[in-house]
Structures are given as structure tokens and as C-alpha cells.
Design a protein that fits this description.
The chain is an alpha+beta fold and 391 residues long. It contains 15 helices and nine strands. It starts with a helix and ends with a helix.
Amino acid sequence: MTKEVGRSVRAAGLVLGLALTSLALLVGCGSKPATKQASPATMAARALTQFEQAVAERDATKLHPDLSFVADNAEALGIVDFSARWADEVRRTPRTFTGSVQVSYRLGGYDANETRTSVDMTFTKGDQTTITAIGDEAESTPLWLSQALGVRRSDNTLVLAVDEFAGADLDRISTQTVEALRLVGKVIADPGSLVVEIPGSASELDRLLSARPGEYADVAAVAATPDGSLVPGSPVHVFINPDVFMQMDRQGAQVVLTHEATHVVMGALFVDLPGWLREGFADYVAFAHAGVPVEVGAKAFLHDVRVNGLPSELPTDADLDPRAKGFATFYEASWLVCRTIAERFGEPSLVSFYRAVSDGDDPDEAMRSVLGINEVGLLQLWRADLTALVG
């Protein structure tokens, strides 16, 4: 290689090197390192912290305008011990993501323990990630987190209703709830407090209780835990099916509310009882001091006795299955069994018998220890009372 050629090659290399260096500098100056976006869990955690503060402080300004009702509901219901924790991502779009959030809370002064449930929340990205929607039409969401509510309270009752029933209907049911607890207190000492929830329809009740579609279509009201828990001590509320309850006359509605209130007070959801005792006792409490004649309250069953004769056994659990034909008639029969116990042995003995079975005693053994008879003896007494009623 000649000196001239060598110089040319070195010059070309120098030019190429400078060009590459310049290009690298240009590229380096013209682009910024990609910013790593926070994970949905991280973004959600910040938004949920603010959401918790909004509930605790009853501060609607910390909520998206579409969710301002949550702060109002929290104030009206006395929500305490509220917690919201990210669980898992459900779906996402370029601007939003939806996740499952574990929520827990208590109704202060009414619930001794927390309700724990999972709800879907939608988060919208921006300078600050914000919760913009709560719930899914196909899934259970506590009423107070789903829409604005009307609320009525007394010293020991709390009634909440969707806006559709937040006027005269809510006033009436609130009055009936107070009366229900008063009637329960005539039979059971220190009945405590009672919470009643009124969703917008039977289908909304199904969703609220995570039930099969149509499961509560023919039920006027039901005592249930808000989160489906069967752990003793879990909050139990009465949930109304407005499609049925609102069509009842005042007396019938009162009997239903008092019946369900009895289940709440006695903790019936958490114990194993013969159906006739569980439902018959609740009906006994509902009718005992309500001024409803036996001939009215047990009309269908007494008619059946007149037509088909005296029963040969106490009502079975199968008889009382809501899916069974004529189950309502067996509710009346169960009431009259408990009425026989109360009239023959006294109301306190009926309560003591119920509590003994609730505590785990065998029903027949409890009859012997509390009432001094067995099931055969009870059947004979019941049949004798029925003979007098239909004679």
C-alpha cells in the first residue's frame, strides 16, 4: 500500500468514525429512555387509599363525581372500619383497567363484626388514577357502594333503600321494622338491633345475595348475611324483595318482617334446627302478640285438616322446602306446633327449648329435659289442639 492510499484509507475511516459518532449523539439527544409505567396493582393501591380516606372522612371531593353518593351513604349509615384492598386484575383497555377489590366494613352501632366481600372497581388512568365505577351488573355489590340510598334509623333499627323506595315506602317499612323488633322483644329478652335492606327488584336481590336468578322471586323477605358467610357472629340483615313485599297488606308485611327479625335475633342462620322449630318459632313470635286470629293466620292448614284429617307427624324439612308444593301450608302447621308448646308449657319454655336445640341438644332429648315429653307426646298434644280448632 502506498503512503497516499494509506492516508486516504485513514481519512475515510476518520470521516466514517466521526459520522457514526455524530449519529450516535443525535440519536442520544433526540430520544428519552422509555418510562416504565406503574403496574395496575400499584396504581390501584394509590387510588384505593384515597377512596378509603373519602369514606372515613365522608369527603365526596376525594371521589369521582359519579361516585359522590358513596360518601353520603357512608355518613348516613355510619360506615366504620372500611378497607379496600386490590386483589387481581379482571380486564383492561388503553385508558382503564378493572380489578377485583376485597372490601370490608361495619355498620357502626349495628354490626358487631365486619362484612367482607369482593367487588369489581374500574380505574381510569391519568395524572392521577381514579376509581370511576364500582360493581358489575352480573355480580354482587353492597347497596351502599352501588347507588344513592334513602336511610331511616331509630335507636335500634336501620333501614336502607334504593332511591325508588326512599320516600313513603321507606317511612312505612322503617315504622314496621321498629314494630317488628318490639314484637320480638315481647317473647325474647334483649333482642338487640335490626338492619333491613331494600333493593330495587327481585332480580337485584338475587344479585345482592349471589343467588341463582329467580331464587327469591316468590319470597317476600329473607334473613341473610350480606357477604354469604355462615360463620357465627357474621352480620345478618333482613333483605326485602320489593316485587312481593310491596304488594302485601300492612298486616301481612308486618308478620313477614317480624318473622325474619326473629331469625336474626336467634341466630337461626348459624345453627342446625328442625325446620318446623326454626320456621314455626319465627311464626309464633310474629303472630303471638300481633292480634292476628289463629283462624286467619293458619287458614290454609286448618282447611286442610278439615278436609284430610289430622296430621300423623310433625312437619318435615321436605315439607318446608320453598320448592315443595304447598310449603306455605306447612309453615302454618309449624307455627301451630310451637303454639301448642307455648300454650301447654308457657312461652319461656318454648324459648328455652329452642335455645337448647340451638346449642346442639338432640331435639327429642331437649323435649324431655325442657318440656318433659318426647316427640310422640308433642304430636298427641298438637293433634288435640287441632281438633279443638277445627271442631
